[in-house]
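User: structure tokens for N-acetyl-gamma-glutamyl-phosphate reductase, please.
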Amino acid sequence: MATKAKIGVLGASGYTGSELVRMLLRHPRAEIAMLTADRRAGQAMRSVFPQFSPFDLPTLVSIEGQDWSTAGLDLVFCALPHATTQKVLKDLLAKAPDTKVVDLSADFRLSDTSAYARWYGHEHHAPELQKEAVYGLAEIHKREIKKAQLVANPGCYTTCAQLPLIPLLKNKAIETDGIVVDAKSGMTGAGRSAKEAMLFSEVSEGFHAYGVGGHRHMAELDQEFSAAAGKEVIVSFTPHLVPMNRGILSTIYVQGRRGKTPEELHEILLNFYDKADFVHVLPFGETPQTRHVRGSNWTFIGVAKDRVPGRAIVISALDNLVKGASGQAIQNMNLMLGYPETMGIDQVALFP
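Assistant: Done. Predicted tokens:
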């Protein structure tokens, strides 16, 4: 059997950390060699997530005091809060410069460190690493990811919006003004930490918008959409919280440019993702549901005609914990380590 890469998961007690473990357990070329979780340090993974009881996994340890120079890790997934990540990775890469990193936080997604400071409220603690970081939307930046040491895994909302819109912007097929992204996410997008606003009685039987007019993912969208269009693009983006565990559904409103019809926009997306492993464009007029991608690394995209001439409604759906986080992170790992892109993450959606 081929040699397995030794993998560390920093922040394994969160939702994205546990999802990484779930998929890595079935990855034929990955050996889980380190799991960290500061509040749970010293505990077995099975005591935090009982579904892992049958598996022999490393005991959870604290990041504090780790000797990265002797850890022998080939690649690390970092599922830590923003700001904390910058300090940890700065130390890790100084002591183990050959270790590859996929960062699932927002810390290295913005190439402009002044934009990071503006949106996140503090200076970037590792600007020298930011210069090396590659934005990890595999369908768009695959060539750069293959050569990268540090990959910034995209946000879940941004992945769901970028996959349908970037091909249309690259092809100058839609007007750059007036794009509206109306997005809804399941509860796991808010993380696993205890929060009063996330209590069952606070969210059950309700549905609400948040971060209205100022959600941090807007900076990520501005950056990637502007790069795709070759000019500044600022979209209207509003996230909503839905009382379900998993999934993101984005309903996107666009106007065809220079007479481009919704059918032509659909054809552009079909051609762009013709050979993509994890993006599926539905027949024209059909639209996806979050349940169609639950537990999978797939993004489904549908295009429908609006009643306003020339305007199209583009709907995309993905699992926020898989393609929106951990599955996409392993997709990036596969590219970075020279493995087949689909290895270990080609599971079909769980339905119902």
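User: Anything notable?

Assistant: The chain has two domains: 5-132, 157-320.
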